[in-house]
Design goal:
about 160 residues, alpha+beta, Alpha-D-Glucose-1,6-Bisphosphate, Chain A, domain 4, 4 helices, 8 strands
């Protein structure tokens, strides 16, 4: 089983994970709303994309929807996209219309992809304005949620490989 490695350094969190799938498929799972929504939220939560324009200068507006129908909205602004290499941007909490909530932390991230034969390593470096902001999202369950989402991604990639 693949291990998710999380490293904290002050206001920065680095998450590294190797997936048993080719880069082309892993990239699609991160960059196409239909696939991203199948794994991004830890079960029993679901990810639902309202809008996604994956390109430099584009954005994604999505909700994490709980088992009782509760919604927590997120806004991702893509600052750079280098196909099959990396992408970076900002993740913020918002409302259903994409209005950013200034009272909650914003994450500045870079997600890098590296293919090694039949596997793909994904390295996500996320930086917050302060250690307090990083601690705030950790207390909200971000670490556990991301690990659970990566298990979902493993299952999705395995399924998708069977259909190729």
């Amino acid at each position: 089983m693949n291990e998710t490695i999380l490293t904290k350094d002050k206001n920065k969190l680095t998450v590294t994970r190797t997936f048993n799938a080719p880069l082309s498929l892993v990239w699609r799972a991160w960059t196409e709303a239909e696939l991203l929504d199948q794994w991004w939220a830890p079960k029993p939560w679901k990810s639902q994309t309202k809008r996604m324009d994956f390109r430099t200068g584009g954005h994604r507006l999505y909700a994490m929807v709980g088992p009782e129908g509760e919604e927590h909205w997120g806004w991702t602004a893509y600052q750079s996209v280098n196909p099959h290499g990396d992408f970076s941007g900002e993740d913020s909490f918002c409302d259903a219309e994409g209005n950013i909530n200034p009272d909650l932390p914003t994450a500045y991230f870079t997600t890098e992809f590296e293919e090694n034969e039949a596997t793909t390593q994904v390295r996500m470096v996320t930086e917050y304005a302060s250690e307090k902001h990083l601690q705030q999202v950790i207390e909200m369950g971000m670490e556990e949620g991301l690990k659970a989402a990566y298990v979902n991604l493993d299952a999705l990639l395995s399924h998708e490989l069977k259909t190729i």
